[in-house]
From TrEMBL:
Range of residues in the leader sequence: none
EC number: 4.2.1.47
Cofactor: NADP(+)
Protein name from the UniProt record: GDP-mannose 4,6-dehydratase
Domain of life: Bacteria
Record gene name: gmd
Family statement: Belongs to the NAD(P)-dependent epimerase/dehydratase family. GDP-mannose 4,6-dehydratase subfamily.
InterPro entries with a match to the protein in the record: GDP_Man_deHydtase (IPR006368), NAD(P)-bd_dom (IPR016040), NAD(P)-bd_dom_sf (IPR036291)
The organism of origin for this protein: Halopseudomonas pertucinogena
Lineage: Bacteria, Pseudomonadati, Pseudomonadota, Gammaproteobacteria, Pseudomonadales
Function according to Swiss-Prot or TrEMBL: Catalyzes the conversion of GDP-D-mannose to GDP-4-dehydro-6-deoxy-D-mannose.
Domain NAD(P)-binding, first and last residues per copy: 6-312
Keyword NADP applies: yes
Pfam families on file: GDP_Man_Dehyd
Amino acid sequence: MNKHALITGVTGQDGAYLAKLLLDKGYRVYGLVARRSSDTSWRLRELGIANDIEYIEGDLADACSIQRAVIKSRPDEVYNLGAQSFVGSSWDQPVTTGVVDGLGVTHVLEAIRQFSPESRFYQASTSEMFGLIQAERQDESTPFYPRSPYGVAKLYGHWITVNYRESFGLHASSGILFNHESPLRGIEFVTRKVTDAVARIKLGKQKELRLGNIDAKRDWGYAGDYVEAMWLMLQQDKADDYVVATGQTSTVRDMCSLAFEQVGLNYQDHVVIDPRYFRPAEVDVLLGNPAKAKRQLGWSARTTLAELIAMMVEADLRRVSKE
């Protein structure tokens, strides 16, 4: 029989790529979706899988709906990707972020413990937990120092996963993912903000791009690569935590330069520094060390930043030209 997988956040970037990966492997995929007035399934349609997923209505903030989802899907694997995932919004919605990204993890783990203890669980942790970095390259042993409500909430989710693994013997793993992008990334994230602006400027629909700290450094990879690491974690005999990253870092300035070069433009002619886009507490550098993931999972990033940005610019040029 095909394995069953339950994905929270199935309509997000990672959820969509992961759902496609699992469907291609023959899984029966259930997706938890919250009721929203706006269309949230466009990413699934982009990948051609919107009709291949069995949807269950629920919300990470509501424990009862999570319990029903686990009972209905009878999952072999549960991937908790649902979150308020934009760092900037976490300053405006700190309580919502704490409930969804922190308490919501407990709701999923408790539902598994009570109703499906043999299910394997994946928690989407984040490099934002490192925040004010305590080591030049961050790995699984680097101390955490989150610098946003998002990072703090995710740290709770990370440690409650460890706690349930050690206290109840659940096969519960966390992937500490560094920045990972794609053409399916939301427009509020800096990579898509840049590539969308590049397309609009090239096509004469926009003149400038306003950004904050363009000297911030990030370890950027491709989301399509990173969901493979998620799946590999749940195929291991023993649950564990893994840093998932490229091991290379670039500035936002570098990323802008690559994006504008794709259309024959110089970023310096179009990028405007706007103090309104600086964070209350900046995270200046994030650089992951994925050695453990490579050693134990056999995983490493395949897509370079240049290839990723080229992919995103091309997709945004096609989209903007049709508007």
